[in-house]
Amino acid sequence: MRYSPLLTDLYELTMLAGYLEEGMTEQHATFDLFFRTNPYEGGYAIFAGLAPALEYLENLRFTPEELVYLTTLGLFTPRFIEFLRDFRFRGRVTAPPEGTVVFAGEPILSVEGSLAEAQFVETGLLTIINYQTLVATKAARMVHAAAGGTVVEFGLRRAHGPNGGLSCARAATVGGVRGSSNVLAGMEYGIPVRGTQAHSWVMAFPDELTSFRAYASAFPDSTILLVDTWDTLGSGVPHAITVARELRERGNELQGIRIDSGDLVYLSRQARTMLDDAGFPGVRIVGSNDLDEYLIDSMKNEGSRIDIYGVGTRLAVCSGPGGGALGGVYKLTELEGRPTLKRSEDPAKSTLPGRKEVRRGMSADGRFLQDVICTPGEEPAPGDTVYDPYNPLRQVALPAGIRWSRLGKTVMEDGVRCGGEESLEVMADRSHREVALLPEGCERLTNPHRYKVSVSKRLQALREELLAQINNQTTIHRDGQDKQE
Question: Are the CB atoms for 284 and 308 separated by under 8 Å?
Fold first, then answer.
């Protein structure tokens, strides 16, 4: 899929034009993409959207029609339009693989290149990474709540437009969802497509049993029947059992029933008993109707017998506490080899300077213990002091016995992707595995355990040095104003 370079905020173009006028376009810059708080008030996030982001970067170029449109705005000089004609992304990108568990405050993607190219791609990267990471995290939370049950994505009709529906299906798969109703997503990404029928199918026939028989005749090897159009237990399930017997007589088996309304816990338990008593223990029960991780978790705790959860609206729109938007940001951290820092009255909005690496500490059995944001090449060692990114007064010494790995790697060099692209199944397996490796309590849906993300001693020293310089410059400026007054 081609993402037009005009899929951007206007200020990216005005800044780019300004850099050209100031002769700054070729200055070497580094930007970090990160988010400030974990989504859904949770304990982690699942990184997603990297492959589409790299595709965007690799194919970034302005068409003649796009350049004509920019000319009509009356904002840009002919020199700038000519500059855009040959504009490409030729930089380096560092990131962990998709499906990796990541946390607030640490860079999940770093971009190095000329100031022009690294700055311009800000909006494009954020719109891809923010949404897909948010969806993948929501999906992972649902899969965890399902505790062995299968989760299928049904969100296309409630997604934020066609492209949102396609991105949702992809990212949900990264988060561990094992199928989608979205047929285009099946073609584009190889996602298994799933679906049954709507209530209108049942209502289009003279009676419920006739509609079930017609569907079973059309799809004898994949029949799943929607049993709640009129009376789930009074007619829907009994009629499904009748059709199951008829299918068996013809050498086929009923695959499942779907319940889309009512008390899903009670109805699934009663339906399970009825199906088992009739000799159909292999018929699976699909539950749908505005499900999210909280409802799935509650239903499991109450003894639900649902095997497959169809999730739609609340996944596609990322609803729930702390949902709606990831809040990822993209900040300049180094220019021409000089570390840069944004200082804010709000400590949560301050940035970490310079190029960085994230080191993940693990126990002997491979469980995650804590992450440390370091300067390049820095290796955490036992006894080293590390600092809370938002409150440097909170500091601890690293214990012995931790194994360290580097979280990210170079995934694009000179504007070209490095290595082959992983399958979504590999990414889904990674997210499932890594959530299971989190410290106990991090995966809780409410009041999760806070995973430790720290700043290394060397990086903290660099931040304090730059803050001191900024404070000194501010003091000189204020003193100068006082004298003029």
Answer: yes
For 483, residues 6+ apart whose C-beta sits below 8 A from its C-beta are none
Phi, psi of 155, deg, nearest 5? -95, 0
Summarize the chain as % helix, strand, coil (round to 5): 40, 20, 40
pLDDT digits (tens, 9 = 90+) for 91-131: 999 999 999 999 999 999 999 999 999 999 999 999 999 99
Q: How far apart are CA 194 and CA 387, in angstroms?
A: 48
Beta bridge partners of 32: 110, 331
Ramachandran area for residue 363 (φ above 0: left; ψ -120 to 50: alpha; else beta): beta
Question: What is the C-alpha separation between 187 and 192, in angstroms, rounded?
Answer: 9
Q: Which of 105, 163, 147 is nearest to 453 (CA)?
A: 105
What's the CA gap between 117 and 334, in Å, rounded? 14
What tokens does 283 get? 């018929």
Q: What would the pLDDT profile of 185-226 be if each residue is shown by its tens digit?
A: 999 999 999 999 999 999 999 999 999 999 999 999 999 999
Whole-model pTM: value is 0.94
> Taking Cα atoms as reference points, which of 57, 28, 5 lies closest to residue 413?
57
**What CATH number matches the domain at 1-485, 3.40.710.10, 3.10.310.10, 3.20.140.10, 1.10.10.60?**
3.20.140.10
Which residue's entry shows tokens 């730059």? Answer: 466
